[in-house]
Design a protein that fits this description.
Elements lengths: L18 H12 L8 H4 L9 H14 L5 H9 L9 H15 L3 E6 L22 E6 L1 H19 L7 E8 L5 E5 L10 H12 L13 E9 L1 E8 L12 H18 L4 E7 L3 E4 L1 H4 L11 H13 L5 E8 L5 E4 L6 H4 L3 E3 L5 E4 L6 H16 L2 E7 L4 H14 L3 E3 L5 H11 L7
Parallel strand pairs: 6-7, 6-9, 9-13, 13-14
Antiparallel strand pairs: 1-2, 3-5, 4-5, 7-8, 10-12, 11-12
Length: 440
Amino acid sequence: MKFIRYSKFKGFDVFGIDLGSLMQSLSDKVLDSGFHEDYWYTRERRPTDDTLDGLREALLRALLENGVLDPIDVEKMLADNGDRFRGSLLEELINQLIERLVEEGYLDIKERESDREPGQGMGGNGERGEPLPRDIRFQLTEKGLDFLGYKTLRDLLGSVGRSSAGRHDTHHLDTGVEAALGAKQYEFGDTINLDVNRTLLSAIGREGLGVPLNLEYGDLYVRQQDYQSSCATVVMLDCSHSMILYGEDRFTPAKKVTLALAHLIRTQYPGDTLDIVLFHDDAEELPLAKLVSTQVGPYHTNTAEGLKLARRILTAKRKDMKQIVMVTDGKPTAAFIDTGNPAYLNYRRYSEIRPDNRVLYKNSMGNDPFVMAETFKEVQACAKGGVMINTFMLASDDYLVDFVKQMTAMTRGKAYFANPSNLSQFVLMDFLKRRTRMVR
């Protein structure tokens, strides 16, 4: 006879959950760019919720989406506590899950310093009142950042097949320890990877066969291999207002592909460098760790300043290849103007003086002659410095085509008209294959 045993429902197995799948489900939460479905109508940015309560809510949603829990399980765990989350079995298990994420190195939890004065925790009569609530915040660790980049990279490469690992191949030859091609006469500075057969044949051809055989400097030949170059890359991310304005989030996919590119360079191209530049009203260099919490702001698009900063960063890199990967969704709409410029008198009413005393000229309509001239001036400077610009345009309006064509032709770069769903594929496959594609 078969017996059925009943036991009290104990929730889910915290230590049986795959943290990798859980982190992937949390990616939209931790990479939030301030976009929400009603943004087009409200124009209100949604602040990043990096509190523990926000993390608990996101984890519960991820557990429901992954099928670890169902709504009935949630009701059972809350029923014993009067349908309150605080003090319930559900809160206890989610707290254990957070502890596991911290122990595995995916998340870091820190207490934010209170802005209150030291005496504000006391009552008005001098007696100590209620203790100040602890302001606990979470953030991704380097391991968490790298993991999200790995997931994006794996999902992309898994759909297109295997990809060769290594550095960037060129058409040039170099000496090295791997013999792959023909030999060449030794020159000072070459790697001493001696081609013994060719060296002996050179000496015998000069003196004839005999013992002892005298070798001279000109008899030395070394083996050659493919010369592989290193590349310095700056990813320019547009974080102007329009990146979340037109009913879709264009900035979060840009952040995801940057994380994937960082993981690819770290693991497959160790000689390469990657830097991040945000451009909006101004431009700023951004550490990878701060990319996750960055949100789009109410800014214009100062492409010229972004190119200037990116070119300055690349100039300091001693690499054979230098490139800018620019992700944007429109034409430049702002540029800095010198008050000594005669044109300033005409543009003064459309300008604002910033805290650093620089004057920013803005024209939201785009295609402004002054803004475009300043932008192409920086494009020309990149071309003279040997910097290639690869543009990934997240819009396909007709008026953008000519702008992208001109910028691409000036630096002999490439241009793609992408959308948020295929941006990762375009950027990563361009970096891997180095194919030349022009806008038609």
